[in-house]
Amino acid sequence: MEKKRTIHILAITAINNETFDMPQENNAIIICTNRINRFIFQCLPENILILDFPDVEDKNYPGAFNNAHARRIIHFVQNLSDKVTDIYVCCSKGGSRSPAVAAALLRMSGRSDRKVWCNPYYVPNTLVYLRLCREYGFFTTGFSVKIRAMINERAFAKAKKRNGTKYERWQILE
Fold first, then answer.
1. What pTM value is reported for the model?
2. Domains of the chain, with CATH numbers?
3. Would you give per-residue pLDDT tens digits along the chain (174 residues)?
4. Long-range contacts of residues 159-166, Cβ cutoff 8 Å, at least 24 apart
5. Sign of CA pseudo-dihedral 173, 111, 101, 158
């Protein structure tokens, strides 16, 4: 994925009639849950990918994120029209699966995934991130993902001390 698109991380319930403020052909959406709403159809059908997989990090769990899921995401993103400028990545709550996909998409476009891993209000799903990066061809070790998860845990602990539990999950990554 060479084109650098703006990536939005949000819960599927946050999508409403005002979410997409650009023409249909400029938006794409990746949904990582079986929960959908009618507003996703503000995107063109070819710009919508719905993958239903549970938010688990055990690769042996039935239906867990696997290489076939990763290939579908990679194929979807690589085949988006050049008109697509924004990708919305959604899961049930916008906290685990969608940040993991967004972090991997950032890496695939040559950008740093640090904005996701250092955000205390996300807990990126390590299985999703690891499999997506590896399927794309990045050499990513389980250890490097554990380091990212530790950075994420520290960021959460600091934010909790500072702010309590108030947070905003929708993030735009450019």
1. 0.90
2. 6-173 (3.90.190.10)
3. 567 899 999 889 888 888 888 889 999 999 999 988 899 988 999 999 999 999 999 999 999 999 999 999 999 999 999 999 999 999 998 889 999 999 999 999 999 999 999 988 889 999 999 999 999 999 888 899 899 988 888 888 887 777 655 545 555 655
4. 159/120, 159/121, 160/120
5. negative
